[in-house]
Specification:
The complex is a heterodimer of chains A (about 300) and B (about 260).
Chain A: H1 3-19, H2 21-54, E1 60-65, H3 71-82, E2 87-93, H4 95-109, E3 125-130, H5 136-143, E4 152-157, H6 159-200, H7 203-211, H8 216-254, H9 259-263, H10 270-298
Antiparallel strand pairs in A: 1-3, 1-4, 2-3
Chain B: H1 5-21, E1 27-37, E2 40-50, E3 55-59, H2 66-73, E4 80-86, E5 89-90, H3 99-104, E6 106-109, H4 121-131, H5 136-149, H6 165-177, E7 183-187, H7 195-210, E8 214-218, H8 222-228, E9 231-236, E10 239-244
The chains are: A alpha+beta (about 300), B alpha/beta (about 260).
The structure holds adenosine-5'-triphosphate (ATP) and magnesium ion.
Adenosine-5'-triphosphate (ATP) binds next to helix 2 of chain B.
Chain lengths: ~300, ~260
């Protein structure tokens, strides 16, 4: 294609946008609103997923040693476990501390269960935190190998809570994907419909172009540029709205100083977010035009 | 279905040979029928030949099939039976991809599609050049030339809605001319115009013809047909009922006393 022709086609797209002021505003508004909803929901879902996936690491594996294990053996075991892959922390809860706690509780509740017991019947306990929740179960299986860890009596895995958390995390992640995809399709549909209106308003022009011998490519090019522009500008505005709202919400949550607000994982990189939104918007915009004019171009 | 390249190349070569070497007719129709519904046909079994450089009027009452006939020539109407060759292009077997090529080698003034409303007169005429990928210099030289031929140079910055219908028709003629086509087709170019303006347009058509361009005009305008005394092909109910080399609008052969 010649440069003069290419320049003409760009100029055509620019003039079309300028001339159909109201239509352009309608298209951009539609893209902005749908993309803001799409981006906002996906953004929040991702944040929730991020938070949820950090929570399970709080849950521990409790390892009870045999009562006749010496402190030295306990500490050696603590060191061994600390060196195993995937382990975050291993803390020792000594039998003395456990006994004291139990006696204290007894006193408060006035149950006197510990009064007649001679000496300390409780074992040492190791509390293990894993880096990733899915490693908890395999870790327990390893620790239950009595040949390798002869001083371990029982291994307790916080099964119920753990499974619930895992399930929630998985659910949120899957729901996020489903809702995200659904919204993407819905936005594409709404945007495509608006663009179809702008193309329909120009079907007479398209017809005249065809009748004087314009190729489909020649007719399509400025229109696709136009859809590209709508998608681009709309998503840019939408990502601005979403990022602003997210920032406000983060500030609001942080003001409470809850354990969760301190634990909030790193923010989503705004550049990546804007870029992603623009790419999706541009694709929907230009592809929307492509689909809309196919019908008009078919009639040669 | 994508046809293999070699078949396309073969066809293009054949078309070129048909047009250049064999020096075929401008328009060659044999047994052409256009059927809209089972019992109604817009054209039935039409046979017509037009040589290069001819000037032909298509006349006939409303609904006779004149516009349909022209639409077949620029392949807007493609549901056709019979043989149609225009400048060597075989219309019935034509691939939709090749239609722009056909339309670029002819100039058409349409009955129901006028100018692009949001372009100036100059841009409208230049558009036909843009479409074929013409450069800036070509557009600057050819567009004023075409506008000059129809006498619209002074209104080149006006928009179509600022022009009278007659002026719009002139611009449409300029747009059809600007590519220097070898076939010029006009559907009712003088519809709704006063006799003087009609005669002005008729003389433009004559000028176009005098440069060697084949001209085909469908019209109801008795006035211009009788004035130019060119070949007249009369249609009725989709059939050719008369083909007169130096005809008048009406069937009466006796010269009317004036
Ligand atoms: N798309 C269509 N579908 C069905 N019938 C059609 C269609 N287009 C034209 N016709 C019919 O074909 C016949 C010929 O129409 P055409 O437009 O060729 O007439 P015409 O001679 O140009 O008339 P006019 O002088 O009024 O322009 C008419 O009876 C018309 O009703
Ligand atoms: Mg007609």
């Amino acid at each position: 294609m010649r440069f003069a022709t290419l320049a003409f086609l760009f100029d055509e797209a620019y003039k079309n946008i300028k001339r159909n002021g109201l239509m352009s505003i309608a298209a951009i508004t539609t893209v902005t609103i749908t993309m803001a909803i799409l981006g906002g929901v996906d953004y929040s879902l991702y944040r929730v997923y991020q938070v949820a996936s950090t929570l399970p690491s709080k849950f521990e594996i409790q390892v009870f040693l045999k009562t006749n294990a010496t402190r030295k053996q306990t500490l050696a075991l603590q060191n061994t476990i600390q060196g195993m892959p995937g382990v975050k922390t291993v803390s020792l809860f000594t039998k003395e501390a456990a006994w004291a706690e139990m006696q204290q509780e007894d006193k408060e509740r006035r149950t006197f269960l510990t009064a007649d017991v001679p000496g300390n019947p409780l074992p040492d306990r190791l509390d293990i935190k894993m880096k990733r929740p899915q490693d908890i179960h395999p870790m327990c299986l390893t620790l239950r190998n009595s040949a390798r860890f002869p001083w371990i009596d029982t291994v307790k895995e916080d099964n119920e809570t753990l499974n619930r958390m895992m399930a929630t995390t998985r659910l949120i992640a899957n729901l996020g994907i489903v809702i995200g995809l659904f919204l993407l399709v819905a936005s594409a549909f709404v945007i495509q419909n608006t663009i179809r209106l702008t193309v329909y308003a120009r079907r007479r022009e398209i017809r005249i172009m065809q009748l004087v011998g314009a190729t489909s490519r020649f007719i399509r090019f400025p229109l696709i540029l136009e859809g590209f522009f709508y998608g681009c500008l709309g998503s840019l505005l939408a990502s601005g709205i979403v990022l602003f709202a997210a920032e406000q919400f983060s500030n609001y949550v942080r003001a409470f100083q809850t354990p969760i607000s301190e634990q909030l994982p790193q923010e989503i990189n705004p550049f990546v977010f804007v870029l992603g939104m623009m790419v999706v918007g541009m694709l929907i915009g230009s592809f929307g035009v492509f689909l809309s004019i196919r019908r008009f171009l078919k009639r040669v | 279905m994508i046809e293999p390249h070699w078949i396309r190349i073969f066809r293009i070569v054949k078309q070129l040979a048909d047009r250049r070497l064999l020096n075929l007719r401008m328009i060659d129709l044999k047994d052409l029928s256009v059927v809209y519904s089972e019992n109604r046909s817009a054209l039935s079994h039409v046979t017509l030949h037009v040589e290069k450089g001819e000037f032909v009027f298509l006349v006939g009452p409303t609904g006779a099939g004149k516009s349909t006939m022209l639409k077949v020539l620029y392949r807007e109407e493609c549901d056709i039976q019979g043989m149609v060759k225009v400048m060597g292009f075989d219309i019935p077997s034509m691939h939709p991809r090749d239609v722009p090529k056909l339309r670029r080698s002819m100039g058409v003034v349409f009955q129901d599609f006028g100018l692009l409303p949001n372009k100036t007169v100059f841009e409208n005429v230049a558009f036909a050049l843009r479409v074929i990928g013409a450069g800036r210099r070509e557009i600057r030289s050819k567009t004023p030339e075409a506008l000059d031929m129809v006498g619209m140079t002074h209104r080149c910055d006006a928009f179509p809605n600022q022009l009278s219908w007659g002026e719009q028709q002139r611009v449409a003629i300029a747009r059809a001319l600007v590519n220097r086509p070898s076939l010029f087709i006009a559907d009712e170019p003088t519809g709704n115009l006063d006799p003087d303006t009609s005669m002005g347009i008729a003389s433009i058509l004559e000028d176009i013809n005098s440069t060697g361009t084949t001209v085909i005009v469908a019209t109801h305008d008795k006035h211009i047909v009788d004035a130019l005394r060119k070949r007249v092909v009369a249609f009725n109910h989709g059939c050719i009922v008369r083909d007169d080399p130096n005809g008048r609008y009406d069937i009466e052969e006796k010269p009317q006393v004036s």
